[in-house]
Amino acid sequence: MRVLVAMSGGVDSSVAAALLVEAGEEVVGATMKLWGGPSDTGCCSVADVDDARRVAQQLGIANHVFNFSEEFGRHVVEPYVSDHAKGRTPNPCIECNRHLKFDRLLARADLLGFDAVATGHHARVTGGPDGSWLLRRGVDPAKDQSYVLHMLTQPQLARVRLPVGELMKTEVRQMASDLGLRTAAKPDSQDVCFISRVGGREEFLGKRIAMRPGRIVDGAGEEIGQVSAVQLVTVGQRRRLGKLPAGDRRFVVKVDIAGATVTVGPLADLLVSEIAVADPVWVDSPPGAGEALEVQVSAHGSPVRATWSPEGTVVLAAPIRRVAPGQSVVLYRGDAVIGGGAAV
Amino acid sequence: MLAYLDHAASGPLHPAAAEAMLPWLTERFGNPSGVHQVARAARAAVDEARDAIAELVGVDPGGITFTSGGTEADNLAILGSLAARPGPVVVSAVEHPAVIEAALASGQEVRVAPVDSDGLIDLDALRLLLDPSVTVVSVQLANHETGVIQPLGLVARRVRRLAPRATLHTDAVQAAAWLDLAEVAADADLISISGHKLGGPQGSGALAWRGRPALRAILHGGGQERELRSGTHNVAGIVGLAAAALVAKSERAAASARVGARRDQLASHFRTSVPDAVETARGVPRTPGHLHLRLPGVESEALLVLLDEAGVCASAGAACASGAMEPSPVLLAMGVPKDEALSSLRLTLGPSTTAAEIDLAAVAVPAAVARLRGV
């Protein structure tokens, strides 16, 4: 089988490529150049491309660089900025997977005659009982990335290989080390790849949208403080709200960009028993009404029990903290992803 | 079977150059700047090479500064001239980055002369950019991507009349293998050449100068190259460059005719097999080695991968430090839309290109294009 491996220059995709080579597949590496601006890692810093190329050389496979920076700007960076401008909290990694790795790259792989695209994600694709594909959690619970892949559909899963999903992260590093790959001890990527650690989200967004100072009000609408930029405030946030009057712990429960108002309240105000989900996509078919499921609302969050209501709502067995609008809400049946969408 | 059609990027070392270099990579050595016999022998080799290059380029025997390659020669020409005499610099819009980026880095005013849709410099627009304050004008002889040959004589006439103080530089890196520089670059004050673009080794090049243009060193140190360039001579590289230059000079006419015919044969084949391909700058003077195509609806990045797998080594536009494809500034300057610029294919032939390589490309390119179009 001819497999195109997306090689970011990290240890997981290095080992993904190595496993496929070991399995006797015909493997070619591809490094996507996604971001032209300054960043620390992950989006085609020259050092990461070097790492990917050197690993490919060591494995004896070809490695190509594909410039998808225009699509990355259009599908990931621009929505990231405009979502923040609207007071939403987007997950750019998910949009990158949706539009770049499993759309643009997959299409390129098709054109070039590859049977499959592989990535270094910690998740597994296995055949289900009825012949459909299941997207399942990776073997390492601490590194599971099935959440950020929840948008994959059957035709995509049929052509996706996730070799490191079968391994614990320690095994991945061990294998990289045994093979002498230069990425063996490279730290895991953190945060948003196109935002440099020095300037951070604040500087990145500050250059692209006009930050609005806002009021902080309590549940009764009384002003109790100010923030310098309402667009940088996220529902659920507790810190970095400036000086607030003494009292109970307060959380952001609502962000109103148009009104430049941040509403805070005690934990009780933050708890919800339902989550409305916009435009859900399903790995296979939608879940049955009332079926006992689990829901996960952040990349490394713990799943909680829930059911799906077909009008587009996740009904929680027990209340959880409100999910910031724009964050992905992903449903699981056991360790298999059913699908999900963005919290309204 | 491999069809190496990327000679404009780098070509094979001519056997005569390799043979000339070998002693200087093995039993012979020495720093040409020393006083003893070993040094003197190395100095003699460099001196002989200097004469050979001067003759190829058509400048006085002393008028050569050896450099590490074309980029350094271009940088020395632009930055060295501007250091000697600061002032506005005029460059064509299709110059190699070694010229454009050096000009932009100089801190001086940079005036960019536009080109027409074939990539030929707009002489009327050039005239408007020239005035007595201009100190450097840089217009290439042949373009690195399209092979288009600029009318340097016409440029020179305008420069001499309207910017009489200006030093005229020409980047002849892509032209040196094909054109008689003594003739076509006769009007230039400074001429850049590169070893590996004419059968010599990578890492060697030269800036040739006519008369004594105002020029200051940009690499400082021992002043080994007539105070215009410092650093111990790359004796093997210099000897190889000269040997290649001698071969190029004697074989140029025959090679041009042979390679030009092969290029035309390939182009004519594509007119049938890929009828909607646009042959860039067809009908204007080009080097015999260049064939640049735009293939509507085909992404260069994908095309190059397929061609590579088919054994055809080709290139497209510009690449960034990571190796990612960028739309070519040359094509954008010619008014080619960005999408079309990203559908480029550059096939460049060299004197060693064989008929079998052409045959392979003639089959592989239409097949890859058809596949990418889903035909």
Strand arrangement, major sheet of chain B: 2-8-7-6-5-3-4
Query: What low-confidence regions of chain A span 5 or more consecutive residues with pLDDT below 50?
Result: 40-44
**CATH architecture classification of the largest domain in chain A:** 3-Layer(aba) Sandwich
Instruction: Determine the fraction of residues in helical runs of chain A and give it as a percent range.
Output: 25-40%
- Please, how many helices of chain B? 12
Helix content of chain B: 40-55%
Would you give the CATH topology of the largest domain in chain B? Aspartate Aminotransferase, domain 2
Rounded to the nearest angstrom, the radius of gyration of chain B is 21 Å
H/E series of chain B, N to C?
A: EHHEHEHEHEHEHEEHEEHEEEHHEH
Written account of the structure:
The complex is a heterodimer of chains A (344) and B (375). In chain A, β5 and β6 (133-137) form a beta hairpin. By secondary structure, chain A is of the alpha/beta class. Chain A is built from eight helices and 17 strands. Chain A is 26% helix and 28% strand. Chain A has helices spanning 11-22, 46-59, 69-85, 92-111, 154-157, 169-178, 200-206, 267-270; strands at residues 2-6, 26-33, 63-67, 116-118, 123-127, 133-137, 160-161, 214-217, 223-227, 251-256, 261-265, 271-282, 293-296, 304-309, 313-321, 328-333, 336-343. In chain A, strands 12-15-14-13-16-17 form a six-stranded antiparallel beta barrel. A five-stranded parallel β-sheet of chain A has the order 3-2-1-4-7, sandwiched between helices. Residues 40-44 of chain A have low confidence and may be disordered. The longest helix of chain A has 20 residues, at 92-111. Chain B has helices at 15-25, 37-57, 70-84, 97-105, 123-129, 152-162, 181-184, 235-273, 300-309, 329-333, 338-341, 355-372, and strands spanning 3-4, 64-67, 89-92, 110-113, 136-138, 167-171, 190-194, 205-209, 278-279, 290-294, 312-313, 318-319, 325-326, 344-348. In chain B, β3, α4 and β4 form a beta-alpha-beta unit. In chain B, the strands form four sheets. Chain B has a seven-stranded mixed β-sheet, sandwiched between helices. In chain B, α1 (15-25) packs antiparallel against α8, α3 (70-84) runs parallel beside α4 (97-105) and α8 crosses α12. Chain B folds into two domains: 3-10 and 252-372, Aspartate Aminotransferase, domain 1; 15-247, Type I PLP-dependent aspartate aminotransferase-like (Major domain) (Aspartate Aminotransferase, domain 2, 3-Layer(aba) Sandwich), CATH 3.40.640.10. Chain A binds chain B through residues 31, 33, 44, 46, 49, 53, 62, 64-67, 69, 108, 111-113, and chain B through 299, 301-302, 305-306, 308, 320-326, 371-372, 374.
